[in-house]
Amino acid sequence: MSYPDSNEYCTDCKRETVVVFDHSAGDTICSECGLVLEARSIDETSEWRTFANESSDNDPVRVGGPINPLLSDGGLSTVIAKSSGTRSDQRYSQLGRLQNRESNDGRLIQAFGKISIMADRLGLVNTIKDRANELYKRLEEKVMKIRNQDATLAACLYIACKQETIPRTMKEMLTAAHGVRKKDLGQAISLIEKQLGEHLCKQTESRGTIQAADFVRRFCSNLGLNPSTVKTVQQLVEKCEELDIRSCPTSIVAAVIYMITQRSDTKKPIRDIAMATGVGENTIRSVAKMIEAKL
């Protein structure tokens, strides 16, 4: 409730009194005698976002949360209220728990929440979260039972990053998905590619394939390299694409960074490069030799 700036005439008090406006009911009430002076009036105050007032039960929200098109009812299902203590209320509470437990959307909401946590750890934007959510929902519709959910969710996020051309390495994904083994993540990625092959191909074709150049700025930033060094790394990585170096993009970038920094004033230990890129030291040396042989 709130107090308006001006008083109003109360027919019971026979004078002007301070009135209270009840936003939820739309009633204007005399603060002295409690008479409803105006009922169901339109509240012209600004709408609030969907955040409840933690300090009291007075929640100014008049609308529900945002619609989620991936849920069967858009996330707008009715939830039965908490029991107030009577037997009737207890029955309704039990029905509410059963309703939520049996809902397919409940599993999706939980899965989407885990994807969001992993994405936040990696600093990923909402478009990638949404893409990963979509992949998981499509997979759940095709597969009867998902054995390792955490690995599958991480795999969905990994593939979503590739589709949105903001790739992340397997090592980065394992760091974000606490407790998931590399073997399990690899198997989950293979499962998704097998089950959603046609869908993934269409998405990849519309956005292009991942190139080594997509990793340059992030890896160089992780190592704190100056702009001139970054530019040199980019140029050599582009040259490697012309030379058709047969290695994964992350290994090529790591090897190029190693080669450039060893020949400049901004030397970086191979151990630091391996940590920043997620590529093994032996792999970096091997790919660097391969590049030097073709230059």
Q: Given the structure, what is the number of helices?
A: 12
Order of helices and strands: EEEEEHHHHHHHHHHHH
Helix content: 40-55%
Arithmetic mean of pLDDT: 76
The gyration radius over C-alpha positions equals 29 Å
Strand order, main sheet: write it out.
3-4-5
The largest pleated sheet is described as: 3 strands, antiparallel
Question: What is the top-level CATH class of the largest domain?
Answer: Mainly Alpha
Could you tell me the CATH topology label of the largest domain.
Cyclin A, domain 1
Uncertain parts? 1-5, 51-57, 78-84, 204-208
> Helix/strand/pairing class, anyone?
mainly alpha
Give the CA-based shape. elongated
Beta fraction: 5-15%
Pfam families: TFIIB (PF00382), Zn_Ribbon_TF (PF08271)
Domain TFIIB-type: 6-38
GO molecular function, one term: TBP-class protein binding
Protein name: Transcription initiation factor IIB-2
Explain what the structure shows.
The chain has 295 residues and is mainly α. It has three domains: 61 residues, N-terminal domain of TfIIb (Single Sheet), CATH 2.20.25; 104 residues, Cyclin A, domain 1 (Orthogonal Bundle); 82 residues, Cyclin A, domain 1 (Orthogonal Bundle), CATH 1.10.472.10. It contains twelve helices and five strands. It has a three-stranded antiparallel sheet, with no helix packed on it. It has a two-stranded antiparallel ribbon with strand order 1-2. Strand 3 and strand 4 form a beta hairpin. Helix 2 packs across helix 4, helix 4 crosses helix 5 and helix 8 crosses helix 11. The longest helix has 18 residues. The chain is elongated. The N and C termini lie far apart (76 Å). The N terminus is likely disordered.
